């Protein structure tokens, strides 16, 4: 029989580590993340079982129910309910997985882009999650994270991303200047840019997306594209605007 | 000089009413809402001053700073800081406006749609807010609210909507059956539908959007449209998918 570890104390070292995975800082420090979700947990176990190291359940029946899907290498834990609830921030009441965060290499920006590479500084993990879901849906494979960006394995990002993080390669860069000094074409969304719906998309490009409410550095050397609107509101939601751009690239890129 | 009312007690009747405006139920009961935001408050005062009845400030300097923009009919209040913070759920630390919610008439669905009318059951107020922002940006004027929908004047919806609510007419309907029995064309987003990017959009239609995670009743008599994707994720975020559909209608509708 597979050994199950019961944890009842908030002083338990494993529990204390897991609780730190609720914030980007702890995720960075420990190189681990928590995945929750009625659909996402079974899907991720089927798609990328080697990414996970442990399962955390609220009780034995919940663990038993998931057991047929659990690879043998996963450590199994049942937590006292109050402890479990502190980790189950989405309120799923279903087992959580502990996974290993891949190393984010420094991007080699001198090399030309392959496909659409999304360079992103979205600081809100929920916004980033919805964006990553759109990115995977529209054929993006590589995401370049700016220092301002939320951690893509933050619980709120994972919740919005619907397992898209496991389909994407993440690299990081030190800032906008490094991106501008790299290979192009570099494209940005901007209310004053050229009509995106009439644009001849290249197959390979870097699309840059600034921080919410901050936008991009005014002097960033990138071609500007705009989504035509009625003008009734000043701008679109950043995730929505970027998703519209990705959809247009996906449906109109060269074969 | 304009009279300013100071409120220090959480037992104060006005304060108690305002606190109830943080939830849909209280907004419905009192027919009022709270608007917050560094940009949205001055913009709304300029665009629709008659929609507001009062201003609530955290201190006198903050009230004085906004004073040049305040119509004379607004009641002015300065709240003790702990009380103000309970109302300032977005943490703006800037004056809030109290406004009057318009009556949402029952939709006359037998009448044909005029332009794109968005019928929506999104239950999460943040999702609804981002969607309403897209709706106003892409020329929607009328939103039909299903019973499951969040209240469009919920603080989280207003925060995402960036004043789009003041550009839209809201009507309500009792449910999907009433919508299906009304005039068409009725269109819905569905993974199994026809390619939305190749669709000949009519100028007048009703686009229906189900509740998050629930989708639409399987037997709803609506033409289905799909957004082609890579297949890497099962579906797009509901707000993102609807925004993409609205953008396509806006850019390709008959003149």
UniProtKB/TrEMBL annotation, chains A, B:
Kindly state which keywords UniProt assigns to this record, in alphabetical order. Answer: Methyltransferase, Transferase
Molecular function via GO: RNA binding; RNA methyltransferase activity
Q: Which residues form the tRNA/rRNA methyltransferase SpoU type domain?
A: 122-246
Which CDD domains does the entry link to? SpoU-like_rRNA-MTase (cd18095)
| Cross-referenced Pfam families | SpoU_methylase
SUPFAM superfamilies registered for this protein in UniProt: alpha/beta knot, L30e-like
Organism domain of life:
Bacteria
GO terms in the biological process aspect are:
methylation; RNA processing
Q: Which residues form the signal peptide?
A: none
Q: What is this protein called?
A: RNA methyltransferase
């Amino acid at each position: 029989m597979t050994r199950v570890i019961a944890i009842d104390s908030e002083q338990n070292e494993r529990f204390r580590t897991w609780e730190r995975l609720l914030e980007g800082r702890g995720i960075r420090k420990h190189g681990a993340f928590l995945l929750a979700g009625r659909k996402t947990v079974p899907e991720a176990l089927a798609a990328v079982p080697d990414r996970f190291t442990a399962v955390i359940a609220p009780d034995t029946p919940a663990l038993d129910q998931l057991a047929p899907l659990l690879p043998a290498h996963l450590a199994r834990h049942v937590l006292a309910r109050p402890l479990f609830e502190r980790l189950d921030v989405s309120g799923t009441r279903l087992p959580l997985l502990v996974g290993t965060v891949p190393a984010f290499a420094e991007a080699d920006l001198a090399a030309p882009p392959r496909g659409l590479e999304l360079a992103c500084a979205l600081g809100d993990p929920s916004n980033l999650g919805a964006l990553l879901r759109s990115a995977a849906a529209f054929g993006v494979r590589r995401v370049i994270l700016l220092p301002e960006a939320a951690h893509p394995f933050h619980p709120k990002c994972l919740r919005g991303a619907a397992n898209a993080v496991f389909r994407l390669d993440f690299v990081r860069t030190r800032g906008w200047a490094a991106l501008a000094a790299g290979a192009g074409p570099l494209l940005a969304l901007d209310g004053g840019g050229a009509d995106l719906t009439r644009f001849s998309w290249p197959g390979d490009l870097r699309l840059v997306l600034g921080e919410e409410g901050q936008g991009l550095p005014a002097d960033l050397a990138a071609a500007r594209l705009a989504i035509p609107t009625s003008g009734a509101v000043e701008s679109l939601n950043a995730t929505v605007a970027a998703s519209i751009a990705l959809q247009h690239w996906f449906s109109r890129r060269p074969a």
